[in-house]
Each structure stands twice: as structure tokens, then as C-alpha cells.
Amino acid sequence: MVPNLLLFLLIVSPILAIEKPWMRRDPITLTKFSRHFALKEAPKYKWQELWYDNMPIDHFSFSDPRSFRLRYLLNTDNFRDKNAPIFFYTGNEGSIEGFAENTGFMWDIAPEFGAAIVFAEHRFYGKTQPFGNESYTKLENLGYLSSEQALADFAQLIDYLKNEKLPNAKHSPVIGFGGSYGGMLTAWMRIKYPHLMDGGIAASAPVFWFLNVPTPPEDAYDKIVTRTFVNSGCSVESIKQSMDAIRDLAKTENGRRFLNDKFRLSPKALVERPSDGDLLADSVKDVMETLAMVDYPYPATFLAPLPGWPVKEACKAYSTRLGSQHGLAMAAHAMLNLFYNYTGQQKDLCLFGNDCPGTFSELGDPDGWPWQSCTEMVMPMCSQGPPTDPFSASCPFHVRDSFRWCQDHFAKLGFRTELFRPQWAMINYGTEYPTATNIVIVFFLLLYWITVIALSIPYQRGLFFRRRGA
């Protein structure tokens, strides 16, 4: 009955939204420890690591014959019947193993459907480097990193799987799965290649959060993060005071010594000047935004080993009268240590600076997602500041500021105006899906993409389930 019901929903629902939000990073890939922990702590599933040879570097040109090898993971333990379904994960901006280990839903239902399971790695991430060590060294190479090229990779891989790799799969239905950016790719795959992907389950996928689209307020992201912390026992004022204390301590020699010693900061990233206090405070903000995303009621290792309800755990440090600047700063340290060192295995914390492993270092290169957010994935996000949220005010969002950052960051590659296309995603994929079918958009009240997704989906279409506590 359950399998039949799920297939029924995929077949008849134009857009089904069940309850369940980035500028230069997708929070799902924030921590440099994510891949390490995912692989070390959760080796529950088995797969073959395979490669698709001769994937075109450029799918949209007939003058470039170059190709590369695209990695994918395959499990066919349950794939026995003729034309049984294929569950296909559209890889995010990261090494594919982490997503394979943490997408349990696919593994749980595959036996019921007799489905093959495929996790396809996104070009320029993980081991799938089209130009090897030269992939990120020049504009001529990095220009081939885009969502549309990745979708074409997936399309070619699906065609190969159905017609060559898998036996008796020529007419197998393909159901896409993805979360966050991967969820966006699943939805766009169904729109662009409906003859290859029969349906898609896109979890936490803000497909309409772009410029000049009727989307939620640009401060919605941090509003939801703040709500999560307030509901878990924190107050906006106490968090703001703790970050202000870090900035104030960084202004004096004694204060900097305190931060370096008590925070156990790595020699590679010491607070040596007042401006470093801003970087350390920004690390607190990053961790808050990520903890809100992984605030599961049970222990998990998705982005890092964490206890159940980690936000509530982080707020315990703020529950007593903190008093001095030292006490306020140490409350922030407790939050950082919870996220980066819950196991106690890290002897120090390397949180900022060019000499630290970057937040994207485990993804293959630190510039992958920043490049995408500087070309096609320009998303309007900012913070209002107190009393709305505890962060430094950065609203309203200005496209010119985003472009300046990109021009600065990719200066060595020769980044220029023509490469910055903030409207392209909506021109390419659309601002609504009037003819789309079989796209299941999943969002949960506990996660902060809910505002972005819930206010962007045309509710007059599809079926909707709202469950508290989900």
C-alpha cells in the first residue's frame, strides 16, 4: 500500500509541498569536517564507485571535443525486475559520498520498489575534476562550472544507465532526489529533461529565491535562524552581546590574548588585530546558521557530530547571568566548540583566515560554490540586525556589493562584469512552473528554508501537508 501511494503521489501531483532556507555558500556544505565525519561515523550503506568516461566538457558546443570522467555511486542490490525504477540523486556542491551516507530515505524505500540507487557527483566537486588540478586555476576552465552543464551531465548519465549499464532498464522510470542545491537541480532536471526524469523529490530547495521574483523578504533567512535559537532558550540580546564582546576584546592586546588562549585558536588563525574580532564573530554567525539547519531531535553526524537538539545545547551557555565581556565571549566559544569539537578530538580551532582549511576544502576546492554564487546563483540575503536578529545589519541587499565581492575574490582569474548574471537562473529555469508535474517539494517547519520555499510556491497547485514538529 505504501509503495503504491508514493507512486500515486508522484504520478498525479503537479507540485506537492510537504512541510519544510546562502549567498556565497550553501549551508549544507559549511563545515570542512562534514565529509570526514560522514564517512567515518556512518558507513551504513554499500555502493560501487564507478566512472562515466568521455563526458563532454561542453554539452552546448559542437566545436569542443574535450571530455572528462564523472564519478557516480551505484547500488543494484534490489534491482532485479525488468524496467524497475531508478532512484537518481542529483549531486550537490560536494563530494558525493557524504550525500550517499546521509540520504537515508532513498535507501529505506529502495527495497519496496526494487529500485537501483545512483548518486551522481557534480562536475568540479569531489573527485570529479574536469581539468584535474587545473580545474580552478583559470577562467577558461572554471567557466564550465554551472548548473546547466551539470544537468546535462546527469542527463547523459541517465541515458547511459538505462540503455547500456543496467540490464532491462530501457523503460525504467527515473525518480530524482536532492536536497538544498541538489534539490534545486532535481526540480530543474524534471523541467529541462522530463523525458529522462519521470519525477523528483526536491527537499529544502529554494528554487525561486532570486532577484526580482516575488520571494520572501531578503532577511527571512536570518529571521528563521533567530527564531530557532529563541525557541531553544537563547535571547537575541545575549547572542548579540556575546559577539560584541568578541569584537571589543579584539581591540586590546589583553583581550586578544584572552581570545587566543581561551578559544584555543590555531596558530594559523590567531586574533592579532581588531579586525580579526569581526572574523571571529562572523564564525559564530556561520555556526548559528548551520546549527539551525541540523537541529535534529536525535544525535547526528551530517555536517559534524552533534547531540540531539544541538541548538538547545548551544543555548545552555547563555542561560546563566554572563556578566563580564569574558563571560559573554565564552558563551560564544561554547557554541563554536559544540559544533567544531563536540567529540573533543580537535586540539585547537582554525576558524578564519587564508591559512586555515577553507569551509569548502573537503569539497575539492574552496572556490566552487563561490564561483556559482558569483555567476548564476545570486541570491538576495541580508540581516536586519537587532531586534530582528543578533547579527550586524547588512540590509538592504545590493547587487553591486555582491559583484564587488566577486570581482575582488576572483580578481586573479580576471572576473569581469559579463560573468555576473544575477537574472540568469530565472531566465533559464523560470519563475514559476505552470506545466511542471511530478515535482515533490519538501520543507519542514524546523528548518530555516521554510520561509523561502513556503512563500514562493503557488499554493493553488498540488497537495499540501502541514505537520507541527517536523
UniProtKB/TrEMBL annotation:
Q: TM spans, by residue? A: 439-459
Keyword match Transmembrane: yes
* Protein keywords: Glycoprotein, Hydrolase, Membrane, Protease, Serine protease, Signal, Transmembrane, Transmembrane helix
- Per the UniProt entry, the signal peptide is 1-17
Provide the GO biological process annotations: proteolysis
Pfam families (alphabetical): Peptidase_S28 (PF05577)
Q: Which InterPro entries match?
A: AB_hydrolase_fold, Peptidase_S28, Ser_carbopepase_S28_SKS
Can you tell which superkingdom this protein's organism belongs to?
Answer: Eukaryota
Molecular function (Gene Ontology), one example = serine-type peptidase activity
Q: Does the keyword section mention Membrane? A: yes
What PANTHER family does this protein's entry cite? LYSOSOMAL PRO-X CARBOXYPEPTIDASE, PROTEASE S28 PRO-X CARBOXYPEPTIDASE-RELATED
Q: Say which family it is in.
A: Belongs to the peptidase S28 family.
Q: What protein does this entry describe?
A: Uncharacterized protein
Which source organism does the UniProt entry give?
Heterodera schachtii (Sugarbeet cyst nematode worm)
Phylogenetic lineage: Eukaryota, Metazoa, Ecdysozoa, Nematoda, Chromadorea
